[in-house]
Design a protein that fits this description.
It is a single chain. The chain folds into three domains: about 55 residues; about 90 residues, Orthogonal Bundle (Arc Repressor Mutant, subunit A); about 55 residues, no CATH class. The longest helix has 28 residues. Helix content is about 70%, strand content about 5%. The chain is mainly alpha-helical and about 210 residues long. The protein contains nine helices and two strands. A two-stranded antiparallel sheet has the order 1-2.
Length: about 210
């Protein structure tokens, strides 16, 4: 059963958080103290998780990977979390999309002297970098296969070749009668080539050229 009292308490907490968030947003960010900016980022993350639920992200990275993405050290990422409210899923685990949105609001905007052209260039750079990361993840997913599936498919190939070899003498004998030595050699070579091509045919389970 639903605990009505707990739900009511949570609604009261959310109402207070929303009120606090609205009050902080009314003030210019440049006039907010460090603790106030951190609190604002935390409130924004909490409220967004409730009001804008998203599907599971494809951009889950550890601290080192997030640092490489933004061109900073892992220690800097840790300071973002500790001192500035950078969102994270849990200790050492981040949703890169959420961090990027936070970065646009809290880090990129700090340099008030940069030109609009530079600002737009940075935004475009990070957007395309995120798209590239997503493509890399998808490509990796397409390339990785379950080892049981691979073992099953190659077992089937071995079975095909075994069956072909077991019937080889019965299939070749009639075709070799009355043939010259050279003709027999050509027939056998062609049969071997077909068997080899069948075993090493190129598909998702064999990326190399036919041998």
């Amino acid at each position: 059963m639903i605990n009505i009292s707990a739900v009511q308490d949570r609604l009261i907490e959310l109402t207070e958080e929303l009120r606090e968030y609205v009050e902080l947003r009314k003030r210019p960010r440049t006039k907010l103290s460090k603790s106030a900016r951190k609190r604002l980022a935390t409130l924004e993350t909490n409220l967004r998780a409730i009001l804008e639920p998203e599907e599971k992200s494809d951009f889950i990275y550890d601290t080192a990977a997030v640092g490489r993405f933004f061109g900073v050290t892992p220690r800097t990422v840790q300071r973002w979390v500790s001192n500035r409210g950078c969102p994270r899923i849990k200790h050492g685990v981040f949703d890169l999309k959420a961090v990027h949105e936070w970065w646009l609001e809290n880090v990129r905007g700090e340099d008030q002297n940069q030109s609009p052209e530079i600002d737009e260039a940075k935004r475009e750079y990070w957007t395309w970098k995120a798209k590239k990361e997503k493509i890399s993840v998808q490509k990796l997913r397409d390339e990785l296969m379950d080892k049981k599936e691979i073992a099953t498919q190659w077992s089937l190939r071995v079975g095909e070749i075994t069956a072909a070899l077991n019937t080889l003498k019965d299939r070749l004998t009639p075709t070799l009668v009355g043939k010259s030595r050279e003709e027999i050699a050509e027939i056998i070579e062609e049969e071997v080539r077909l068997l080899r091509s069948t075993f090493a045919r190129r598909d998702k389970y064999c990326r190399t050229e036919d041998v």
